[in-house]
Design brief:
Blueprint (H helix, E strand, L loop, with lengths): L3 E5 L1 H4 L10 H13 L4 E7 L11 E2 L17 E7 L18 E6 L8 H9 L3 E6 L7 H11 L6 E5 L7 H14 L5 E5 L7 H9 L7 E5 L13 H11 L7 H17 L6 H8 L4 H9 L5 H8 L4 H5 L3 H12 L9 H8 L4 E4 L4 H4 L1 H11 L2 E5 L10 E4 L2 H5 L9 E4 L9 E3 L15 H11 L5 E5 L23 H19 L3 E4 L8
Parallel strand pairs: 1-2, 1-9, 2-3, 2-4, 4-5, 5-6, 6-7, 7-8, 8-9, 10-11, 10-15, 11-12, 12-13, 13-14, 15-16
Helix pairs in contact: 2-8, 4-5, 5-6, 9-10, 9-11
């Protein structure tokens, strides 16, 4: 190995965790501290024609926008931007002599590998270092990878990468692609490695490459605190320490720790990244990690369910994220069960001429239990709790649509449980068609409270419904439910989106059924 060095991708790959909204002062601070740390290559973000430029976001539409970010006098670090193929017109790229950046990282999918040559030629003709990033390298057969190398190495790239986009590579996989590059690349082209940490192998795979002692130099991507989509990336502070200890490098680690403390830790608290079962499963199935994030955010599926859904995704659909595709597949999977309506007539008959009270597991149902108890005493309603057994008064029935919540219901209560058909149990009292109870608002399409309202409307033909404990979502997650165990972690933006969706859906239902909240709710008009 001629030499090994690092490329820090915090401002680009880390941006998937905060929508690249680092803030202008933080973008400058991260760049400044990476220079102080003596990081050889700093990736400042994306270059694209697809957005409107915002100086607080590390996505740029013109390289001139980096003039305020990159210091004028700097001899220690090189600066690059990444372009996703098809998202930038390279005829707009100024010559390198008129630019503050040194290189372009061109990322492309296997399906576009024959189309990128004009872009490579343009980048090189304008004098930039060219970093070639064949995303999801594991999708290439040996012959395809060799063909791609031979085709693109004629442009004399600065580096050609092994890209572990889904964090699924094991030692043998990394070494196989490395040996191909060692054999076919001209000696002056650097071998690059970009990894994700779905299997917790980003660090060990980087060490394996360092120990190969090949004829080419190595550039290995990393990010501060491992900041990156899903399971995150190789940690800059760990990898640079390794290079200092065993490969004669002299990086300053303290500037990275300062950025961790003053900038990155806040983003981690707001939207954590790191190892998780869904991200492990996405790597296991060679699936884009955003599919794991989408299914996990539903909070309705067990790990076994996610594994089953991933097994339904082919390699072509799995390599690029398509939200419409996974949304349709999720609904298809959830709709595969069989409804059992033999007892629905009895429930309907029991509820005739009676008030219907739905009790969701929001904290207000406990904090304002006197309101609930008084309502029950005065109105003698049929009481249906949602996704749980309400602990204050006995429920007549438990409506459950969430597979996770169903697992927490005691088996002795199955005899009064009304489940949706995605819950594959023959022990529940009745099972209603999951698909029939969905609503048209995507982010809360199968929200349990909304499905319960629709059940009351569609199956019980009620003209009005009273609701307790359907509070909406506060950013203080442990204030949202009766017990801490029911809380789930998600972003404030996601919670706000769900609140907006809930209000829209309730407005729609209010045109068909009178809805009354008896406890405090963010959803009450």
């Amino acid at each position: 190995m001629k030499q090994a060095f690092a490329l820090d991708c915090t401002l680009r790959d880390g941006g998937y965790c905060n929508e690249w909204r680092f803030g202008f002062s933080n973008i400058k601070k991260i760049v400044s501290h990476l220079i102080t740390a003596r990081v050889e290559v700093i990736e400042c973000g994306f270059l694209t024609n697809k957005v409107v430029y915002d100086k607080d976001v590390s996505i740029f539409t013109d390289v001139s926008q980096l003039v305020e970010v990159i210091p004028k006098h700097n001899d220690s670090s090189k600066f690059v931007l990444m372009v996703n193929f098809g998202e930038y017109d390279f005829t707009h790229l100024p010559p390198k002599k008129d630019s503050v950046i040194d290189g372009i990282r061109l990322a492309f999918h296997k399906t576009n590998r024959l189309e990128v040559m004009d872009a490579c030629r343009c980048i090189k003709d304008k004098g930039y270092d060219l970093y070639i990033q064949p995303m999801v390298s594991m999708l290439y057969s040996t012959d395809e990878f060799e063909e791609m190398i031979c085709m693109l190495s004629k442009f004399s790239p600065k580096a050609l990468y092994i890209v572990d986009s889904f964090g699924m590579m094991h030692k043998e996989d990394v070494l196989r692609y490395f040996r191909i590059l060692e054999r076919l690349l001209p000696s002056n082209v650097i071998i690059g490695f970009h990894s994700h940490n779905n299997l917790q192998l980003a660090y060990s795979n980087a060490i394996i490459l360092l120990e190969c002692n090949g004829e080419h130099s190595l550039v290995i991507d990393c990010s501060i605190y491992g900041m990156g989509r899903g399971a995150g990336n190789l940690n800059s502070e760990l990898f640079l320490s390794e290079l200092n200890a065993y490969y004669g490098k002299k990086y300053e680690i303290k500037p990275l720790l300062t950025i961790m403390d003053e900038v990155i830790s806040r983003f981690y608290e707001e939207s954590p990244w790191g190892y998780s079962l869904p991200n492990y499963l996405s790597a296991k199935h060679m699936i884009h990690p955003n599919y794991a994030n989408y299914l996990n955010s539903k909070r309705t599926l067990t790990v076994e369910n996610i594994d089953e859904i991933f097994s339904m995704i082919g390699s072509e659909e799995g390599s690029e994220y398509n939200e419409d595709f996974i949304s349709d597949l999720y609904v298809k999977y959830m709709s595969t069960g069989v409804s059992r309506n033999e007892h629905l007539f009895e429930i309907k008959k029991e509820s005739e001429n009676r008030t219907v009270l739905l009790i969701a597991p929001g904290k207000s149902a406990i904090d304002e239990k006197n309101l609930v108890e008084n309502f029950v005493k005065e109105n003698n309603p049929i009481v249906i709790s949602i996704n749980h057994e309400y602990p204050i008064i006995a429920s007549d029935y438990i409506f459950v649509s969430n597979i996770r919540r169903f697992k927490n219901i005691e088996r002795k209560l199955y005899c009064k449980t009304i489940s949706t058909s995605n819950i594959k149990s023959l022990e529940t009292y009745a099972s209603v068609d999951y698909f029939k109870l969905l609503n048209p608002i995507d982010c809360v399409r199968d929200n349990a409270g909304l499905m319960a309202i629709r059940f009351v409307l569609e199956e019980l033909n009620a003209k009005e419904v009273f609701i307790a404990g359907m509070d909406g979502y506060s950013p203080y997650i442990y204030s949202n439910f009766e017990t801490r165990e029911m809380a789930f972690v998600t972003s404030a933006d996601r919670l706000n989106e769900m609140n907006v969706g809930l209000k829209k859906a309730i407005d729609l239902f209010s045109e068909m059924i009178d809805i009354h909240f008896i406890t405090t709710s963010l959803l009450d008009k």
